[in-house]
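idk why but the lab printer keeps eating my pages so im just putting this in chat instead. protein + fe (ii) ion:
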Amino acid sequence: MIQSDLDLFGPQPHRLANHTVLLPGFALPDLEAILDALRPVLRAAPFRHMCTPGGLHMAVALTNCGELGWVSDAKGYRYSPTDPVSGQPWPALPDVLTAFASRSAAVAGFDGFAPDACLVNHYQPGTRLTLHQDRDERDFDQPIVSVSLGLPAVFLFGGLQRADRTQRIPLSHGDVLVWGGEDRLRFHGVLPIKPGVHPRMGERRVNLTFRKAGCG
Ligand code: SIN
Ligand code: FE2
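predcted complex ->
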């Protein structure tokens, strides 16, 4: 626990489950550095709507940076070292993002988190993300660090079975949610984003999820 980071930035973490911690506003002090790091990534690998294995376009637009990026197409969901649009490797994970994700994980109780993938999701008003588990990664011992930017969202946080009750967790601009350990495979999703314009981010929610997707 790097307590001094939290003391500086006001709101204290909320433990939502044994291995799930919400860090309200934790990204705010680093916001401009995060956005500066993201800009060249989005230029090299713009947001796109991928196809589901069932042939539908995903409502959420996405891109990636890091050694591995999450992709979906007719063949299924998986991590790929290359961007299927450009055929090039995904843009590198900027150091400032890696360091931020690692610090967030440490504050939430997960030391030594070294992400190799950052999925960047783009939600317009009305866009939702249906309940799912994150299970395309090799090592479920590593946590997930999720950074919410822009319009607020309601995160649905369920159990290990799809039918389990879900908690509704409001996520605001700058909030960081970390889940791992016994919570790593909980079902989760995002309710439709309410219409609005965020003063810094405009008419969108952007979510960064950092993961250790590969092995080693
Ligand atoms: C995800 O489940 O990968 C993203 C969650 C979010 O957008 O908050
Ligand atoms: Fe997910």
